[in-house]
Amino acid sequence: MPKPAISVAMSVYNGERFLPLAIESVLAQSFTDFELLILDDGSSDASAEIIKRYAAADTRIRPIFRENRGLIVSLNELLDLAQAPLVARMDADDICRPDRFARQVEFLARHADYGVVGSWSDDIGEHGEALARDGADHPLTHEDMLVAIENGEQLICHPAVMYRREVVHSVGGYHAAFRHCEDLDLWLRLSNVTRMGNIPERLLRYRRYSEQVSARHSTEQQIGSVIARLAWQERRDGRRDPTEHLARLPAIDELDRLFGRPGLSRTARESIALSLRWSPAAMRDKGFDILLDHVRGGGRRDGLWRTVARLLRFGEPVRALRLAAALARN
User: Fold this and answer.
1) First-residue to last-residue Cα distance in the chain
2) Is 80 exceeded by the pLDDT of residue 214?
3) Which of 144, 188, 249, 303 is the most exposed place for a label (fewest CB within 10 A)?
4) Are the C-beta atoms of 176 and 185 separated by less than 8 Å?
5) What's the predicted TM-score (pTM) here?
6) In the Cβ-directed half-sphere of 178, how many Cα atoms lie within 13 Å?
7) Residue 216 has pLDDT above 70, yes or no
8) Is the pLDDT of residue 302 over 90?
9) Domain ranges of the chain
10) What is the CATH number of domain 6-212?
11) Would you tell me how many other CB atoms lie within 10 Å of the CB of residue 312?
12) Closest CA to 5 of 110, 102, 80, 76
């Protein structure tokens, strides 16, 4: 059998709620020469039955079922299983526009020097309702991407991306340590070896809801994002990346030792703390402790009295009092 032009990589863990819509949006693509790899990562809900039902009806679907090993292992496994030179990522809770693959294949055919292309997206809510966007759209050209990296801005929406499989393999795929920000770490590493961009069309409907990974793991995601950018700076400046072979990220206090640069832990904690103060989830978990350590260590306090008020709105009066006491003392 001839190999497909695209391998679509979808990892699923307890995704029964939105999975049928995600699969159907892939099967409805105007560009039809693809295989759809759906890896069920040990789901305990009806995801496996849903995948089997769709696979029985469409031979382009290649289902994989196994025990739970986590998203990064699953993504690397899907990369290894992919038969096509191009890989399109897709999540089990998002929806593709019918011409997404056609537009991205066309872009990569016209831009041989680009190894990665994403697109803009529309945000939707739990029930498919349109959500107002906040913030700028993703950068378009590789030059725009490099500026965005320097400024700490968003780069590519992961489930909207299509990339050349061999380019991603050349940098070692997804790195195990960067749980919940594995895509940012990958884009930063790829920026050194290929050109990357985004199509200025909303080819994906990106679902936002309280149970999604980015909402539930905002603290770990922000810590990993800061460390990924520190590692990028090391590579940019010609130094060795000390995170390359890590299985898990170090504690913030260990960053000075890991990178061999005094003061890095303090700088990283400030960046993480000031980012997490906006997140209700982070202020209810260890993100609050990071913020408190930042204040007690004499870090920047601008705007933190407003965080006290937000904690009250979040329903966290005890934490609001603890932060107010720390601000009053320091």
Assistant:
1) 69
2) no
3) 303
4) no
5) 0.93
6) 25
7) no
8) no
9) 6-212, 217-329
10) 3.90.550.10
11) 14
12) 102
